[in-house]
Design goal:
Strand content: 5-15%
Helix content: 25-40%
Low-confidence stretches: 1-114
Number of strands: 11
Number of helices: 14
Shape: globular
Length: about 525
Amino acid sequence: MGLMPVLRILPAWCVKQLAGWDCVGPMGQLWEGAALTVSHPMEPSPSAQPSRFFYLLLMAGCAAFLVLGAGCAGSGGMANPESTIAPRPLRPSSPPPNYTPTPYAPAPAPTPVAGGRVYLGIDVEAERKFADLQGLRVGLLTHPAGVNRDGESTIDILRRAPGVNLVALFAPEHGIDGKVTAGADFPISTYKDTGLKVYPLFGKTRSAPPEWLKNIDVMVVDLQDLGTRSYTFISCLRRTMETCFEQNKMVVVLDRPNPLGGLKVGGPIMEEQYMSYVGDYPIPYVFGLTIGELARVAKDTPGWLDPENDNVRKRGKLIVVPMRGWRRSMVWADTGLKWIPTSPNIPSAGAAFGYSLTGIGKPIDKVGLFAFGVGSPYPFRLLNYPGHKPAELAATMNGLGLAGLHFDERDYRDEKGDHSGVYVNITNWNAVDPTRLGFEMMRLDAAWTPGGNPYAKKGLDEGAFERIVGSTEWLQELKVRGVKTNVDYFFKKWDAEDAKFQQWTRQWWLYPE
């Protein structure tokens, strides 16, 4: 890179520093141990960043040099018009034609931790002596998987934390104990013998009414997500940010690993007209961000929170407490952390991976006959299909040639007797195209369902289908062509869109690869 392009970029970069960023440093570095505030504007930390005088002096020097040497690049002094930085798009699914993603520098390598284990957001906040919560009345949105790296509940940690006043608990789908059936409502309750009220943020009250928030100053969010769009904890996060910002309550997200790692994206980006509680963001089905990073994107991007009142998003205050020791290349097994069930049907990290592979494969109950092991010891990893023996099914699935996957017959026994199915082995996660298996399952359903293609029949609840899948073009093709649907065409298209999405969201990454 020549000197002139660098000097042309530096003044704009200096202006950004003077306007004030968050606690991500001037070259995209995360200052270790600091909570990450993404409300704007915010003064740069004097201890972490150079002074304003430094930036003014640098700008003046660059400007003088460019005036004297303007002819060096030729054609009006611009070496390459395509190298200029375009405005950030409002929607990652539809960037401007000539959009150039904001340059970024990778975050520094994480500080080594004992035994290779990761320090979670709650661990980092405890190390900082709960600096973000001192003297405040705290509400906590969490579930059983909300624990520190030693498995201790965030509820108990905050209850005894000096200077922290935990006054209320809030629960996502499945409840504070994680045992409520998917989709079921649950009432306001009291948590064990603590006297703390537990307010349900699901069912009829997905958004907390003002009276539930009046006695808190800050909402802490500690939820273990799966990294897949239809798992509702990220929708609960969005609604919580909206309602807290409306009531001028700060939100603090204690970050946690994406169990799938931070490098996988896959599947169609949700079309805006189909957004719902099982798809509340315009993101791919597998989106490659931690819950804290997703919160940052939503806070910074017009229209991602309540689009009818964007001033609420702008004035809201969000703090993300990052992990230490986590890298994007880490899957759950690399973290040294124990998996705690996030819901009844996700009892293991293996089930979380299975959810990303097969969860989209049956968007509507009673349409399509694939079963994927829910209720067995291998939820979302054990396939069956009526009229097709496991050996035949395994041969068919292996014949698809899906990279990184292999299908084997597997027997198991439970209280109801002996059973068998086809187990989805992940032989190389780096090679897997997440969600591809689910779409192949739909295509096979179109051929195998008795009575013909179930997606072409009258009475199909297209709205319910699209709220999970989010692609009008896919459903129309599946209805018309059935088993002849060109899955390769769709994944070539979606992979390109997902790559743009991932490149666009890099500016919010908190962790290196």
